[in-house]
Amino acid sequence: MGRKNSSESEDDSKDRRDKHRHSSKRDTEANGDRRHSRHGDESELSDSDKKNRSRRHGRRDEKDVRGRDRRQEKEHRERKERVRSSDEDDRRVERERGRRDKVKTHQRERLDSQDEDYREGHKRSEQRRERTGDDEHRGYRNDHDRRYLKDRRGKEEGEHREDRVFQEKEKEEGEVREDNSKSQKQSTLQGSSLNADVSNWGRSGGVYIPPFKLAQMMKEVQDKSSIEYQRLTWDALRKSINGLVNKVNATNIKNIIPELFGENLIRGRGLFCRSCMKSQMASPGFTDVFAALVAVVNTKFPEVGELLMRRIVLQFKRAYKRNDKHQLLAAVKFIAHLVNQQVAHEIIALELLALMLENPTDDSVEVAVGFVKECGSILQDLSPKGLHGIFERFRGILHEGEIDKRVQFLIEGLFAIRKAKFQGHPAVRPELDLVEQEDQLTHEISLEEKIDPEITLDIFKPDPQFLESEKRYEELKKTILGEESEDEAGSDAGSDDEDEDEDDDEDDDEDDDEEDEQQMKIKDETETNLVNLRRTIYLTIMSSIDFEEAGHKLLKIKLEPGQEMELCIMLLECCSQERTYLRYYGLLGQRFCMINKVHQENFEKCFVQQYSMIHRLETNKLRNVAKFFAHLLGTDALPWHVLAYIRLTEEDTTSSSRIFIKILFQELSEHLGIRLLNERLTDPSMQDSFESIFPKDNPKNTRFSINFFTSIGLGGITENLREYLKNMPRLIMQQQKPVSESDDESESGSGSSGSDSSGSESESEQSSPSESERDERHKKRRRRG
Questions:
Q1: 683-705 pLDDT, tens digit each
Q2: b/e for 384-408, b at 16 or more Cβ within 10 A?
Q3: What are phi and psi for residue 443, nearest 5 degrees?
Q4: Measuring CA to CA, which residue among 593, 576, 603, 586 is closest to residue 547?
Q5: What's the pTM value of the predicted model, to 2 decimals?
Q6: What contacts 24+ positions apart, CB below 8 Å, involve 696-702?
Q7: Buried b or exposed e, range 435-466, using 16+ CB within 10 angstroms
């Protein structure tokens, strides 16, 4: 291939050279023609001109020839380089192909040789095996044979090992069958011959025995204090506790608790704790049910609750060290519900959260969020400062941003739940609130202290005083369940008398049921109709062009008795939501007050309600509400006696209420004018309503009212109050004179009182002109301004 390409490139180069020669001939012929034409013209010129022209033409021809030669040489060089590069590429490709072919052939030869060597070695090994009968003959020198023997030996050893394991399993199964047959044979024996091999039963209670068989064996035992009988009662106790704990739920927990107290929980407290923890681990959704069950048991047997708490805390610590998230979640949830039931102290919850958030990871923060959701409601009541510190730590973790986005969303959701005061996450459900707070015993266990789980309580141990302990528990059980058993007996005794009276009461019950059905009415507790009414009122107010159209449409809405208040509330709410006050709402409220007195009374109630809750409103809403009621008062749509609910003193007002009063009276002065407003406020028939705004009970309150209205630019309406303040010392003197005359017996006391009164009079006379002078100066400054 390389030779072909080189020959082709040589042919191309020859063709190009021939073309170049022909082109150069054509150029020389053309130049000759031009010269002939020039020579023809030269005959007409002078000799000197002819010489100069010939020189110039000769120089041009030389330059053209030199440039042409340079171009030709350059093209020739480029052609050579192209040919050389193409030849080198072809040679490189041929070399690469040859190398690959050699490698492939070498690999094939090597594989073929290996196959032949393996076949020959295998044949030789077979021949030697036939001759000697020994696989490990010392004459083996081939590596392939050694590898083959090693592989075969390993396979044989694996087969032998499997045979051994299978034989051991068969032996164990045979021993178990023999033990079962022995136990069945020994069950017919009596006394000490029953279950002689007690030590082989193990921790879990030994071989399974059906309940009827176990009851029969317990009846056949004569010695009730023997170890065999104690073993049988232990197995029965374990099975009954497991069965009761496994079937408990929120509906039947009240029925399970008496049955559970019927078992010996003092002897089986370890079994009870282990059963609760296993059941909770298997079904975490029933954790609150198990916690309620433990809370009831804890009221009667506090040592059971303490043992369970210790084991759960130990389980939490082990899961935390091993990074076992599943077990950690179960333990944390159980602790949270025990805190809700107040079996565990809230300090363990705070310690747990501090530990989880000390070095926050995605899993630890997720577990902490779930824990706070479960017991945050009760922590907010028992330890609000501690819960606030935990949430501050959550906020810090959120700001650091080192955890996953999913966990950040979980923290944000937790803050939303806290803002809603843990609605949807109650501490204890009503059906599981079975223990009074006074009866509950709370255990304080710290995460830092050493904990003894007392695992030996889960294992059977013979009790030398077994019968005495059983009798003591029977007496204790009677004290716990005695009242319930008496109630049941009384109910059984009275059932016969009730059966006789049932026939007589059946007719009366039927009549009562008919009357109840007639009297029964359906009530909508979801308030769907109320929500739809508010929506209709809101859309009507917002879609109307002016207040007349809105009033006409709102009056067409059919309101049930008692729903008129919703109209006033929605109108006031829409007004408060606007950015600035719109006179549209004041005119609409005025129209409703003029049409029906019911609306006027409802707006009066709204005024009282809004003023009592004025501190909850923002500044913009507060301004809109004040201007709305000022419009109603200025147009006499609302009676002025509603101002009696305002008490203008330093103790009875807040900053929000003072802003409300300021905007209200400023709007009234703009709407009515200061003169007409003063006339309204000085109306003798309305003085009882204005006593709270212009108090005269105490000089301190009087001065506060005067200073307040003066500071908002309405000092003119306080002239009567100022005169009263000036004359207050005289009035006090007049009130004290009859008192001094009645006290004739104590002359010295009267003299001292007279001196005090004269002193106070002089002081009041000195103070009153000073106050009047201040008012006059203030008025002059305002006039100048």
A1: 888 888 888 888 888 888 888 98
A2: eebbeebbebbeebbeeeebeeebb
A3: -105, 135
A4: 586
A5: 0.41
A6: 696/721, 696/724, 699/725, 699/728, 700/650, 701/648, 701/649, 701/650, 702/728
A7: beeeebebbebebeeeeebeeebbebeeeeeb
